[in-house]
Fold this protein.
Amino acid sequence: MQRILASAVIAIVPLVAAADPVVVTGTGTVSETVDRLKASIKSAGARVFGVFDFGGGIRSIGKDVGEVQLVIFGDPRIGAEALSADRMAALDLPGKILVYDTAEGSAMAYQQPAEMLAEWDIPADAAVLEAMSGTLASVTAGAAR
């Protein structure tokens, strides 16, 4: 019985494991990359809703995880499409890009929309997921320059 249970668990683990994020190498410091990312997002017609400075917050309690900032943004036109398919998608929106320091400078990371919204009633081939993916790729490429 234990072998059957162990086999079942091993078979299910890949289904529930989260996919690796997309990582885009930036240039310069985290702050410089965040500034370029915000400009790139605005140029794409989206809105920056906020930047959360995790690194600064953690330094305020005497610890250090390096420079880590999360940029929260969205485009209401794209968000409307996702929410029209399933309102629960709002639990995973708006978009988020993590910017952090590396030995070489900075990097940006984000989750692919098809993976991020997989649990909601949005078909895997929905145009909105392609639009979101394109926007993420475009704004990070713009910030990486």
